[in-house]
Structure prediction request, 161 residues.
Amino acid sequence: MATTLRVSPTTAVIPVHAVWGAAAGLVGGVGFGIWMSVSRPMADTAMITMVAGLLGSTNAVVGWLIHLAIALFAGIGFGVLLGQYAHKLAPAVVLGLAYGAVWWTVGALWIMPANMGMPVFEWNDVTSSSLGGHLVFGLLAGLAFSCIAQVMGKRTSTAGG
Prediction:
């Protein structure tokens, strides 16, 4: 006895948006990672080494690995939650910037300082610099998602017809 699984068109799109979001998250993560590598809001400490501190390290490579893992996760979230609205450039940019601001609020103002024993939701040189980086992440992730969606959408529409 064979069983057939039927998937609705909307359900089938979620994994595709997750994959596109993962790629877009890495694009945004590289841009933000460069920002954190050159930004030094505290003396001679690059922000990327502060990220390494989440695992008790000061190594920039460790910071990059942690950062890109977070960016990958955030990108998948963008694709799953907002991907259906981000196929066109303008909405993707707006949604990306808003998504970056949300991640700044959750990540830079709350999760990271809480894990490092620092005050949460505090405005200082680090969090203000981090806001710019999170907006760069969101902008690049939104742009990348839109571009991927447009290219892949054209491929699937021409492949089927």
Remarks:
- The chain has five helices and no strands.
- The mean pLDDT is 88.
- The two ends are 33 Å apart (CA to CA).
- The longest helix spans residues 125-160.
